[in-house]
């Protein structure tokens, strides 16, 4: 296992990049601690696979360094970096048994057979596949094939990092939760540094201790699942995480106050100084309620999704969603909309500019 440091890392697929628009990865500086569980989360094309390939050694960055335990590995090949990787499609040998698939990475490195058997038995127990060790891999179900692929990545105890690249994409939805839970359990048991790449917020937030959210080649926030939900540092994070995502409505800044529909909106704290253009108010639906308020709108839609209801209200030309658990208003009703003060923030050019109240 290793601490991983990305220092002034940038990458462009252009031979002579001239500006930020030519970079697939904008400058990144971050540390991943030894033994941590991390996720790279973002939409397709955001740069997460490029970053994963740079960490693994499949791609040399245009600028910056990659350090494993403060050792510069930027120019090293994947085998020199001592990593394990689990891909979207299971990488196993169909003609081999499950046991031989799990044993292969150890045998390939000359590990003594008694030690091979001990380690394979340990991993098989963790994966709950002891009863199929003697079966050929060709006959396995897709979820068991991916389990074996994961086991091949975890069977070595000398790897610096185990990386998972969209490992559950081909798994049936009703089986995904089982493998997610199993992977989280495996991390706690083997205590390896793990990096999980996905576009699925549920996978990222349930697996990782800390999540790196990326958009357009840029890291927009790094935090725990709770931090990303409760205090998004960028409107993209608010949109991308949560269902429904964070409400974003335009506002004017006058005299240090945020105004919407001509009314001052109470915020969690003061707004940082700066040019007050392209400003927006952000608040999650979970922190909107309905009742007596001078801010009034018309109910456009009510969706009952079981545990609660999502109420969409038009405030002028802007739609906001609120989540309630009690009796919902009817479509067409004129109702008051209440923003929870300590969860209401201002964003400027997409970035959070509201300070926390003391």
Automatic annotation (TrEMBL):
Residue ranges constituting the ABC transporter domain according to the UniProt record: 4-241
PROSITE patterns assigned to the protein according to its UniProt record, in alphabetical order: ABC_TRANSPORTER_2
Cell membrane found in the keyword field: yes
CDD domains linked: ABC_Carb_Solutes_like
Pfam families: ABC_tran
Cross-referenced SUPFAM superfamilies: MOP-like, P-loop containing nucleoside triphosphate hydrolases
GO MF annotations in UniProt: ATP binding
Gene3D superfamilies for the chain: 2.40.50.100, Nucleic acid-binding proteins, P-loop containing nucleotide triphosphate hydrolases
Regions crossing the membrane: none
Keyword terms: ATP-binding, Cell membrane, Membrane, Nucleotide-binding, Transport
Magnesium found in the keyword field: no
Signal sequence annotation: none
Family of this protein: Belongs to the ABC transporter superfamily.
Stored PANTHER family: ABC TRANSPORTER ATP-BINDING PROTEIN, MALTODEXTRIN IMPORT ATP-BINDING PROTEIN MSMX
Protein name: ABC transporter ATP-binding protein
Organism per entry: Sneathiella marina
Classification lineage: Bacteria, Pseudomonadati, Pseudomonadota, Alphaproteobacteria, Sneathiellales
């Amino acid at each position: 296992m290793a601490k991983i440091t990305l220092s002034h890392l940038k990458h462009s697929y252009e031979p002579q990049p001239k500006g930020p628009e030519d970079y697939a990865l904008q400058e990144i500086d971050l540390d991943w601690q030894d033994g941590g569980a991390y996720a790279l989360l973002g939409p397709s094309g955001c740069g997460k696979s490029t970053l994963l390939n740079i960490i693994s050694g499949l791609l040399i960055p245009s600028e910056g360094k990659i350090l494993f335990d403060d050792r510069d590995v930027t120019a090293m090949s994947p085998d020199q970096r001592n990593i394990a990787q689990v891909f979207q499609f299971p990488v196993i040998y169909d003609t081999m048994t499950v046991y031989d698939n799990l044993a292969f990475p150890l045998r390939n490195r000359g590990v003594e057979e008694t030690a091979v058997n001990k380690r394979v038995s340990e991993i098989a127990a963790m994966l709950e596949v002891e009863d199929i060790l003697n079966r050929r891999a060709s006959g396995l179900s897709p979820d068991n094939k991916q389990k074996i692929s994961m086991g091949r990545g975890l069977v070595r105890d000398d790897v610096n990092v185990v990386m998972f690249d969209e490992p559950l994409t081909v798994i049936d939805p009703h089986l995904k939760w089982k493998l997610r839970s199993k992977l989280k359990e495996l991390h706690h048991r083997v205590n390896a540094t793990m990096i999980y790449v996905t576009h699925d917020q549920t996978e990222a937030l349930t697996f990782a201790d800390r999540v790196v959210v990326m958009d357009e080649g840029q890291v927009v926030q790094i935090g725990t699942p709770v931090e990303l939900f409760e205090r998004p540092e960028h409107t993209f994070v608010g949109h991308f995480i949560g269902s429904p995502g964070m409400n974003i409505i335009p506002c004017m800044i006058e005299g240090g106050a945020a105004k919407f529909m001509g009314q001052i909106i109470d915020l969690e704290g003061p707004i940082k100084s700066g040019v007050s253009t392209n400003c927006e108010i952000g608040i999650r639906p979970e922190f909107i309620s309905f009742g007596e308020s001078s801010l009034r709108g018309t109910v456009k839609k009510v969706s009952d999704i079981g545990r609660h209801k999502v109420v969409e209200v038009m405030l002028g030309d802007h739609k906001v969603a609120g989540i309630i658990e009690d009796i919902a208003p009817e479509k067409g009703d004129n109702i008051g909309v209440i923003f929870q003060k300590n969860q209401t923030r201002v964003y400027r050019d997409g970035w959070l500019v509201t300070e926390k109240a003391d």
